[in-house]
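Model the whole thing, not chain by chain.
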Amino acid sequence: MGVALSRSAHSLTNALVNWRSASHTRLLTLATEHQTLIHMTSVDLRLDAQWVVPITPFGALPDHAVMIDNGRIVAVCSAEHAEREYIARETVSLPTHVLLPGLVNAHAHSAMALLRGIADDVALKPWLEQHIWPREGRFLAPDFVHDGTLLAAAEMLRGGITCCNDMYFFPDAAARAYRASGMRAMMGLPVLDFPTSYAANADACLQAGLAARDTWKSEARLAFSLAPHAPYTVGDESWAKIVMYARQLDLPIQTHVLEAPDERAQSVVQYGLAPLERLDRLGATGPGFIAIHCVQVDAADIDLLSAQGCHVVHCPTSNLKLANGVAPIAALAARGVNVALGTDSAASNNRIDVFGEARLAALIAKAATGDAASLPAATVLRMATLGGAAALGLDDKLGSLEAGKHADVIAVNMGGLDHVPCYDPISHLVHVTGRDQVSDVWVAGERLVEDGVLTRVDAQDLAARARFWQDRLQ
Amino acid sequence: MGVALSRSAHSLTNALVNWRSASHTRLLTLATEHQTLIHMTSVDLRLDAQWVVPITPFGALPDHAVMIDNGRIVAVCSAEHAEREYIARETVSLPTHVLLPGLVNAHAHSAMALLRGIADDVALKPWLEQHIWPREGRFLAPDFVHDGTLLAAAEMLRGGITCCNDMYFFPDAAARAYRASGMRAMMGLPVLDFPTSYAANADACLQAGLAARDTWKSEARLAFSLAPHAPYTVGDESWAKIVMYARQLDLPIQTHVLEAPDERAQSVVQYGLAPLERLDRLGATGPGFIAIHCVQVDAADIDLLSAQGCHVVHCPTSNLKLANGVAPIAALAARGVNVALGTDSAASNNRIDVFGEARLAALIAKAATGDAASLPAATVLRMATLGGAAALGLDDKLGSLEAGKHADVIAVNMGGLDHVPCYDPISHLVHVTGRDQVSDVWVAGERLVEDGVLTRVDAQDLAARARFWQDRLQ
């Protein structure tokens, strides 16, 4: 923050009187015509909106502002307070908009955006074995991953997602794409026992992944985790190594677990244990464990996830589309398990749209429990933001609009005909808003979407690259 | 169609040689330098698109055109054929778009757009009794219905819905709104036994409704049906009159049926019959019977609906949100029952978005049946168009792009980053497209949305009216 002289406050006319330095800010004290003393803090950016939904505390604050300096949130305050206390180098006025924290997509395989819609109406096993893996076998390479990840990042940013939890091959190429896009990402370093174009086995996966982490670990908008694909594709020996690295390097572990109906029985046959029980015995569970899907969890699994402080990522569209079912989110949430929302890949969704997931999560929870009060809008909106940040272990930095956190902020325009009337903006954010109403997106205070247009990514060039891959894959 | 002289065809230079008249068109025969004879038909409008999805026949036709004259479709043909055979007064080029028939929203309470989001997270009975009916009791009047209907019509048109099946009070006021908007609607003339601000009883409902029909029956874009609210709100005597009027006036009957879990038991207690069995005995069922919701239908109900040739309107969002469940659509479709899609009202949805309903219908069918192949995109897209038209008894006029049908056509722009790559445009229309990608909408050949902007409705004025009602209702 710097020093500035307010011209916008009420009837300031007189000259400088007093100058002093404070610990975090330097204040300029001016005498007005009326002898009032005004202390104003200068900031980079002021966002004025019809409502601010900071998530913490929860609610929709009318006529509020978010003050941003040096990439971080300085304050969330009333417009009146902002006018009196702050002077901003840039002010963006959003008179029919809601400001809220950027959405977190807690499960993505971003590069698979290039496989969007390549095989619908197929269950998980044949979908993987007959459609996805053969194509990955032929085309998987760093340039495929770079272009696919950039395509997904552009789609995510345009739809208000400022951070995603990715899990895919060639994380180095993905990291390049995220850096180009400006969005925040946790890179899941993939581990599989069987050979792929990426690596010959689990050890080679770990080696390649940790090398990518070494290259990129100082990049402010990137974070890392270990990503064994699933209990059924990674054996005990590899899991043991993953747990060791996770402890040594303080990295979260993310994995697909209990996604399809047959996984439990298969695990019992192969290991004599249910999948989560097995991972628990291997030491994988805990507050750094991100359990993706959890469609088929039973009461014992919920006990375990709750007792160990694990996180669950709910991917409702993908779970429905692959006919896996509906995860018991209300039961998990009731036991205090943190739940985040994920899109899964564009090959099984086929959108990368957390607004869509939030709405769907709210709707299917009501039908699945028979209780219309299940997963109210407030709960779901928290899952889409702070719940996601907490799953990634980043809730001290992201997920809510609070002083000190990164300025990852999105604006939703509620001025259109489909948002009127508006009795409750939080209800609208879940049950009415489409991602197309996201007008502006800031990550670390940088405006990456301005009035609907991506500022860093050349959309036409990117679409042409996607079509190039389409021609090859077809 | 008229007479025209092509200047765009290949190297036409010579003068008029021959003139003759055909039964439906008048053709101008010209001699070219190369002595070729060219017969061109003149039309009002030619729409050129990357793909045309006519629904009948089913498929995505690349580089095709839709030729329109006098509000009707003249032909769907290749761009090359169009260039050779037709000369259009206006040509719209849509190089990254899909053209398809306008969507049909087969169940709406349009005026309730003014109650959008007024009460979430409540089951059907308390939602009606504690939230909706008391407010309707205070505010229901023609001006409320007019403004709410216009708001809904604007939202529907903007999202690619060209025809809706409405069911609400004061159909005369709603008809005024539809006429102003330009969209097509079937007006359900509501019947309830208990008194409302609209009418004192069922007889008064019928009287008021049939009077509205007399006023508006020559309006080309309006159609009418009888709309007893539900088996549980309309007694046998009233149903008998409704059936009589339906036969005399050749009107369809639409009603909410088996929406909530308790309706069957309640009907058995009160009438000794399940709801559909009772309506069947009263003579209400048949090819003119539109059964809305059908969440709780059992095997006998499905038999009855199939045997009688009834139509079912599936409203997945509303059914989930009010915790009523998931209608067995795959089972109904397997028995040959025609299924259409509906949004229900914006008070229980809270969008009026048939693209959203189509996607949700596809997704929940897969999870409900455990079969990922259930309700493929093609089936759902047909429900959203021709299925809707058939439910309304209008499939000879609407629901597909075929010569002779009304030119109700929408364009979806697939040029954006979220639609690339595109391996199958029909998959994208269901699993990727949001209503925001609808760029243009024609009803009876009239362009009601042009590049995303409503041409007849003043959006700012309408939003202001919606806020006026919000202030009163709050």
